[in-house]
Amino acid sequence: MTKTDNPLNFLWFIPSSGDGAYLGSDDLSRPSDPGYFREIATAVDRLGYSGVLIPTGVACEESFVLAANLAAFTEKLKFLVAVRPGIASPAYYARLASTLDRVSNGRLLLNIVAGGSAQELAGDGVFLAHDERYEHADEFFQVFNQLLETGKANLDGKYIKAHNAQLGFPPVQEPRPPLYFGGSSDAAIEFSAGLVDKYLTWGETPDQVGEKIAKVRKAAAAKGREVTFGIRLHFIVRETDDEAWADADRLISKLSDETIAAAQEGFAKNSDSVGQARMLALHGGRRDKLEVAPNLWAGIGLVRSGAGTALVGSPKTVAARLREYQDLGIDTVIASGYPHLEEAYRVSELLFPEIGLGPPRNQIRSTFGEHQVFGGGGHGGNLRVVAGS
Ligand SMILES: Cc1cc2nc3c(=O)[nH]c(=O)nc-3n(C[C@H](O)[C@H](O)[C@H](O)COP(=O)(O)O)c2cc1C
């Protein structure tokens, strides 16, 4: 079996700052709504996704609180929740993480977010220059990890001081929930090499992702470690390639040039993230050159920060593109699509069979074994048993 034959670990996304059917337009938009997040979480828990990323930021609902709420309504789903060094002490974050892992029965994954906006961080009381954020995070995670792994920690660091810090209850997962991380600067890669379990990249082209993976692997090997890899992508999967491209166009059909210009200006002014700069460089703010590699479409990044690319095509096409990333070493996909409830169904129903994933509901017997057709008769367009077939 080659590594490509192993099924991907496939996560979805909770749009905790709002959702919609058209980018850059209020038409068919959905405001932040806890009931809607529960609908998405319970759907993807049944549809065969292994987890969800809950984003963090001033424009998002608070991620630990939201994850604790969603854990109560789901069975197997894992929650990738951000830890932001500097926003609270490592001892407090360790308590949050341990209790969330305990109440969810071991379903917590941690996403380290050092931050990519000096302006946003200043609002939270963090005034560190870009590379310093990683030095600070390094000390933060010494204390955080020690507490989760042993219940005790001490550090007299340059940034972090913890004297006889203690954690009352251990997490369910041993030695602690896994650490995920995405950051593309040299400082980020150096930081991740010594610490993280899974390195994440936004959906750059296969060539770029391959280069990055090689860089991270080399930096980790120099520290005697191995890291696994994940990618964050949107998906527009339809029964045919043509339908998928038509829906990619539709998604930005109400997006004005003024809105694009304003978003691009905002990113340039407020972000010092190298990862964000790499995403913007893919399209350069131009809407006429959005297919940046075969079936990799950068239209979403015209106005959305962070994950800005989608794989667009039929299930077979998109599965083939995913295999290219898998061959580079990607084993995890964090996926999304607009709107997130409907697209979670589409990706599961159309793409999962092509990539060896399946919803657990298939394990429930729906018939006594006869062949059935949907809409074949009956009052509600319900299933009809076809005799003899
Ligand atoms: C998959 C993924 C998810 C991320 N999620 C968040 C997030 O929820 N909130 C946030 O502020 N930054 C998020 N980031 C940004 C990074 O954590 C990082 O702070 C930023 O890219 C700056 O790092 P750099 O300059 O080293 O690239 C994410 C990055 C990746 C790759």
Summed up:
With 389 residues, this protein is of the alpha/beta class. It has helices at residues 34-47, 63-71, 90-103, 118-123, 130-150, 186-193, 206-222, 241-251, 257-270, 274-283, 315-328, 340-351, and strands at 9-13, 19-20, 29-30, 51-54, 78-83, 108-112, 152-156, 161-166, 179-181, 198-202, 228-237, 291-293, 296-297, 310-313, 330-336, 372-373, 384-385. It has an eight-stranded parallel beta barrel, surrounded by seven helices. A two-stranded antiparallel sheet has the order 2-3.
Structural features, described:
By secondary structure, the chain is α/β, with parallel strands linked by helices. It has one domain (9-384): Luciferase-like domain (TIM Barrel, Alpha-Beta Barrel), CATH 3.20.20. The protein contains 12 helices and 17 strands. It has helices at residues 34-47, 63-71, 90-103, 118-123, 130-150, 186-193, 206-222, 241-251, 257-270, 274-283, 315-328, 340-351; strands at residues 9-13, 19-20, 29-30, 51-54, 78-83, 108-112, 152-156, 161-166, 179-181, 198-202, 228-237, 291-293, 296-297, 310-313, 330-336, 372-373, 384-385. An 8-stranded parallel β-barrel has the order 1-4-5-6-9-10-11-15, surrounded by 7 helices. Strand 2 (19-20) and strand 3 (29-30) form a beta hairpin. Helix 6 crosses helix 7. The longest helix has 21 residues, at 130-150. It is globular, with a radius of gyration of 22 Å. The model has no long low-confidence stretch (mean pLDDT 93). The chain binds flavin mononucleotide. Residues 55-57, 82, 113-116, 182-185, 188, 200-202, 232, 273-276, 306, 334 line the site of flavin mononucleotide. It catalyses: an alkanesulfonate + FMNH2 + O2 = an aldehyde + FMN + sulfite + H2O + 2 H(+). Residues 10-331 form the Luciferase-like domain. Its EC number is 1.14.14.5. InterPro entries: Alkanesulphonate_mOase_FMN-dep (IPR019911), Luciferase-like_dom (IPR011251), Luciferase-like_sf (IPR036661), SsuD_RutA_monooxygenase (IPR050172). Belongs to the SsuD family.
